[in-house]
DNA sequence: CATATATACGGAACCTTGTTCCACTTATCA
DNA sequence: TGATAAGTGGAACAAGGTTCCGTATATATG
């Protein structure tokens, strides 16, 4: 009778196996705390610090994320999601071209914040392998939607793909490395501006 | 025989007292042990393991290398030296073109072995900053000497520089990443073979 | 509501590793 | 052959990772 079904789902649905409400709340608090601590202290921050900030015990971390890399990967995914979701929000609140502009700046913020994780991501830990694919799968459609809207509204040229833009901006942000966000912002602004139709 | 470039620090030989013989011996044993342990366990291996293998106490490590990065850098330099010194040896034992061929294979071995250190090298630790320059300064002249000899002997084309070759082969080895040495070797062989004058 | 039980929790305890420190040893010199 | 300063080993301490289990509680059931 002790059928211990380890039906662990970490992707999107909790329909199969109702998770205890408090456990779910702790998981959310944990990811939020980890995100903050990683941003402040780096991904090597002590587990205890993360646990304390989330108001849980270290055991709770290890139950949800057996390896540190699992926690890092989860935080990364969460931030990718947050960035992608912003696209929809901007689409509803701004004119198409401005939505693109704002989203690209948001994307720059993401890239700069992610730089701390970059070296960790380049390790060969198995938990990190699917992350680049996830990155593309979430961000590319998000931006492509904004681009399509702006193109159909006649506000932007239509001859550049979301994929190319993502790569280009990532390239602009990564190598400068000096943490100079302002510099990156300026370059990206130039780039986006170049996409606009000139009203002349 | 490999030239011992670390015998005396040439820059401070008149100001500093000569180093105690046993200290020098310990330093050599330490570097050898670190090289072995890094190769077996990775650069994160416990200091105690390295100390035990070298037959010294951990204190001796910290006296010579205050930071772990210092020890890693020293091992790296030692391996660069070993690779560079091989050039002279091959030049004395083989025909010019074959010396080039053999050295390039030796260089492939070095690159593959170094892959474990690659992620560490890409950290922003100050101890690693001068390493790329050292890499070029040692390896480029070594290969250039072999190339010049082969060119003057009429065995190789003379229109490729040592620098270009080093970069090209490093590029061949790094991205494949699958640890497939045989694949890398085959590519490099093709490359070197292309440099030969066809006896036709 | 009361009770049963699987689930989840916290954090003390334990283990591994980094780093410091100093009493002791020894190479070198006069 | 001392005298002495350089060098040594490893115990001791610090800090973080990971495990384990008694306790607490959300949820299902009567």
Tell me what the structure shows.
2 copies of one chain form a homodimer. With 200 residues, chain A is mainly alpha-helical. Chain A has 2 domains: 19-64, Homeodomain-like (Arc Repressor Mutant, subunit A, Orthogonal Bundle); 76-195, Tetracycline Repressor, domain 2. Chain A contains 8 helices and no strands. Chain A has helices at 21-41, 47-54, 58-64, 68-93, 96-121, 131-152, 162-176, 181-195. In chain A, helix 1 (21-41) packs across helix 2 (47-54). The first copy, chain A, starts with 20 loop residues before the first helix and ends in a 5-residue tail after the last helix. The interface between A and B is small, with 3 and 3 residues. The structure holds a DNA duplex (30 and 30 nucleotides).
CATH-defined topology of the largest domain in chain A: Tetracycline Repressor, domain 2
| Residue share in helix of chain A | over 70%
Largest interface: A-B, 3 and 3 residues
- The helix-strand sequence of chain A is HHHHHHHH
Mean pLDDT metric of chain A:
84
Overall tally of structural domains of chain A: 2
Q: What is the helix tally of chain A?
A: 8
């Amino acid at each position: 009778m002790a059928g211990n079904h380890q039906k662990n789902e970490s992707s999107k649905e909790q329909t199969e196996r109702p998770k205890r409400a408090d456990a779910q709340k702790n998981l959310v608090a944990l990811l939020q705390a980890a995100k903050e601590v990683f941003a402040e202290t780096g991904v090597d921050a002590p587990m205890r610090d993360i646990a304390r900030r989330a108001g849980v015990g270290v055991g709770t971390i290890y139950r949800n994320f057996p390896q540190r890399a699992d926690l890092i990967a989860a935080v990364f995914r969460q931030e990718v999601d947050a960035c992608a979701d912003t696209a929809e929000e901007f689409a509803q609140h701004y004119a198409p071209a401005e939505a693109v502009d704002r989203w690209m700046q948001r994307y720059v913020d993401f890239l700069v914040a992610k730089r701390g994780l970059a070296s960790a991501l380049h390790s060969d830990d198995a938990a990190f392998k699917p992350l680049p694919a996830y990155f593309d799968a979430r961000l590319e459609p998000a931006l492509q939607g904004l681009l399509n809207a702006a193109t159909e509204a006649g506000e932007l040229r239509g001859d550049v793909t979301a994929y190319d833009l993502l790569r280009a901006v990532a390239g602009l942000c990564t190598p400068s490395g000096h943490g100079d966000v302002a510099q990156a912002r300026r370059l990206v602004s130039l780039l986006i501006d170049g996409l606009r139709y000139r009203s002349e």
